Amino acid sequence: MRALVYNGPKDVSVVDVPDAEIEAPTDAVVKITTTNICGSDLHMYEGRTDVEQGKVLGHENMGVVEEVGPGVTRLKKGDRVSLPFNIACGHCRNCTQGKTAFCLEVNPGSAGGAYGYADMGPYSGGQAEYLRVPFADFNALRLPGGTEHENDFTMLSDIFPTGWHGTRLAGLQPGESVAIMGAGPVGLMAALSARIQGADQIYVVDMQPDRLRLAEQVGATPVDFSKGSAEEQIMEATKGVGVDRGVEAVGWQAHDHSGDEHPAGTLDTLVEVVRATGGIGVVGVFPPADPNGPDPDMQEGRLRFPFGQFFFKGQSMGTGQCNTKAYNRQLRDLIIAGKADPGFIVSHELSLEDAASGYEHFDNREDGWTKVLLHP
Ligand SMILES: NC(=O)c1ccc[n+]([C@@H]2O[C@H](COP(=O)([O-])OP(=O)(O)OC[C@H]3O[C@@H](n4cnc5c(N)ncnc54)[C@H](O)[C@@H]3O)[C@@H](O)[C@H]2O)c1
Ligand SMILES: [Zn+2]
Ligand SMILES: [Zn+2]
């Protein structure tokens, strides 16, 4: 089958690889209809992880069940499914508590497994014609058959739940205000989630005009940090009060308007603008180490952010990968009911064969390249 593999920094290509197969009785093989390129893939693409050469990338996958193992009882050939980016066993301590992003079984020695990702286990990704899905009954979310809502449903594997998770980690309540750092796909999904949850004011910070326009489209107030500090703009807009909640949707490769990286830049802002006793949800990725990165602290996974001010204000913070299964069923049903349209961020739909150029444009954050879908 054809699949996109990682060759080295800024070098991916679509090549022939062995077919995805049933390896355990609880596996299914899914024929991919849509698989997305994610901002998380760019950390690997840019050579900022230890992902191995030849790995098939792709963790935002949906498609149609092609084959099931003898231990699969719920799913059957022909079912249309969304696959959470987390691979989870369904029976370990964390899985039984709904924390499927931290499954203790699928990636021994670590907590959490995923398709096609550095340090997340031996699993191949779905930027390919077919994907092996472990513990398929537990992991696959069934969708209505056909092709309706494809561009909305494809956001259920990761970024719509992840944006939602950011707002839940922050503790957002109806009628509260929230500042979201980053207007990438995850930040935009956090803005959509905040709107659905009844936030009264949503500020979205970025410097990409096309992305800020999309934030405005979901009812958020755009804050362009290339035109002055985000702190000052948000404090002025809130008449010095600040916001109730903050969501970090950038990660450690956050940069200033000249492009220099400041891993703690977004948390500096959020600790400043979130009111005393407010909450901050961090879904942007911060790695345990970034040995080749420019920041000496982050090389050891240490972040210099104003912890004293954070403590003094009695703020709280929630972090981590999204437990996709905690939300994807309800978010699917909001899409079916016409109450959520996460597909509004899709900017490009490419064939799998054109995936390498999709990576290049998306990585350059070229104007208008917001979210790239691949159709194998
Ligand atoms: N926790 C999870 O489960 C999970 C899931 C998916 C993605 N992620 C992570 O979420 C982050 C965002 O993902 P994405 O797909 O939206 O990525 P992206 O790279 O497309 O978007 C990031 C955006 O942040 C902006 N940005 C950079 N520095 C900034 C700053 N200082 N202030 C404000 N904005 C800034 C960029 O201009 C860009 O638009 C990544 O770190 C990704 O790995 C986490
Ligand atoms: Zn993703
Ligand atoms: Zn588990």
Automatic annotation (TrEMBL):
One GO molecular function term?
A: oxidoreductase activity
What InterPro entries is this protein classified in?
ADH-like_C, ADH-like_N, ADH_Zn_CS, GroES-like_sf, NAD(P)-bd_dom_sf
Q: Which domain of life is it from?
A: Bacteria
For this protein, the record's Gene3D superfamilies field holds: Medium-chain alcohol dehydrogenases, catalytic domain, NAD(P)-binding Rossmann-like Domain
Pfam families, from UniProt? ADH_N (PF08240), ADH_zinc_N (PF00107)
Ranges of residues in domain Alcohol dehydrogenase-like N-terminal: 25-136
Which cofactors does the annotated protein need, by name?
Zn(2+)
CDD domains documented for this protein: PFDH_like
Q: What keywords would UniProt list here?
A: Metal-binding, NAD, Oxidoreductase, Zinc
Domain Alcohol dehydrogenase-like C-terminal residue range list: 185-314
What family does the entry list?
Answer: Belongs to the zinc-containing alcohol dehydrogenase family.
Listed PANTHER family: GLUTATHIONE-INDEPENDENT FORMALDEHYDE DEHYDROGENASE (PTHR42813:SF3), ZINC-TYPE ALCOHOL DEHYDROGENASE-LIKE (PTHR42813)
Its protein name is: Glutathione-independent formaldehyde dehydrogenase
In which organism is this protein found?
A: Pseudokineococcus marinus
Origin organism lineage: Bacteria, Bacillati, Actinomycetota, Actinomycetes, Kineosporiales
